[in-house]
Amino acid sequence: MRALVYHGPGRKSWEDVPKPEILADGDAVVRVDAVTICGTDLHILKGDVPAVTDGRILGHEAVGTVEAAGSGVRTVKPGDQVLVSCITACGTCRFCREARYGQCLGGGGWILGHKIDGTQAEYVRVPFADTSVHPLPAGVPAQDVLMLADILPTGYEVGVLNGAVRPGDVVAVVGAGPIGLAAIMGARLFSPSHVVAIDLADSRLEAAKQFGADATVNNSRQDALAAVRDMTGGLGADVAIEAVGVPEAFELTVALARPGGHIANIGVHGAPASLHLEEQWIRDITITTGLVDTFSTPTLLRLVAGRQLDAGRFVTHHFSLDEFPKAYDVFSDAARTGALKVVLTR
């Protein structure tokens, strides 16, 4: 089969590799029908995730068809269409019992495209299939469901739920890329009074308006901190969400939060960021980090199936599976191409 293989920072190729096989009785082999590229994949290619080694097939999001299932798999069978979650869960360890699947101790967590071969391929082996794939809801396009493999649950859980968004809150989202837009869309479910999107690109700020932001700030021309304080009587945001993964974005996010506010970090950081405790220790702030657990995926699937969330709005570009190099070029140059999420299909 063909797959997108990582060969060290800045190097990848679409090449022939062995087709995966069932290795354990809980495995499923899934034929990949639709797959996307994540901002985390770009961080890997920058060298920000050293656990990803030469020869690893990238990718952790897919919709596909079960081709084979191990003897222990009970919830899906060959021929079923499924969502392959970015998080794999053993289902029995301490953290899985707490629905903290991202911290799985039994061989799961974020392993696809990280510790084992991933989904940017014609086929993928999914361990613990009973707890790591979801049947597709009837009548929902595959590309819409694909957005629930990672981006929507990440924005919702790590941004909105960790940030404790409540009705009437002012929510500031630093970074209007795909994950920031997912946080904006998720925040709207809790009826905040304002959602402020902050970015350096006008095109992404325009997209943020379509996803639910009622105020935008281009931080290359405007003072985001002054803008948010003007909106809040000088206090700052109730919830500030970091969705970039660079030190400057994190430091701005902390500054945006009001005393007693919540700061939710979603961004994947590859370098240290400063936390000025000499300024923050007295402000009663709460800072959260997190890897998505995907416990919210069933809820989000119901919301998408019920047309309460328009997940397909994320998709801006379509490619065939053999166009991975072109798709990466478009996705990584989003400021020029306007790409939010790219979808590659058979």
Question: What structural keywords apply?
Answer:
346 residues; alpha/beta; Quinone Oxidoreductase, Chain A, domain 1; Rossmann fold; 2 domains; six-stranded parallel sheet; 24% strand
Question: In words, what does this structure look like?
Answer:
Helices cover 28% and strands 24% of the residues. It has helices at 39-46, 94-97, 129-132, 142-146, 151-161, 178-187, 202-211, 224-231, 247-256, 277-280, 297-305, 324-332, 334-337; strands at 2-6, 12-16, 28-36, 62-69, 81-84, 123-126, 133-135, 170-174, 194-199, 215-218, 237-242, 257-265, 286-288, 315-320, 341-345. The strands form 3 sheets. Strands 3, 4, 5, 6, 7, 14 and 15 form a 7-stranded mixed beta sheet that branches. Strands 10-9-8-11-12-13 form a 6-stranded parallel beta sheet, sandwiched between helices. Strand 11, helix 9 and strand 12 form a beta-alpha-beta unit. The chain is globular, with a radius of gyration of 20 Å.
Level of helix content? Answer: 25-40%
Radius of gyration: 20 Å
Name the structural class. alpha/beta
> From the 3D coordinates, which CATH architecture of the largest domain would you assign?
Alpha-Beta Complex
Per DSSP E runs of 2 or more residues, the count of β-strands stands at 15
CATH topology of the largest domain: Quinone Oxidoreductase, Chain A, domain 1
- Through-space gap between termini: 13 Å
Report mean pLDDT, rounded to a whole number.
96
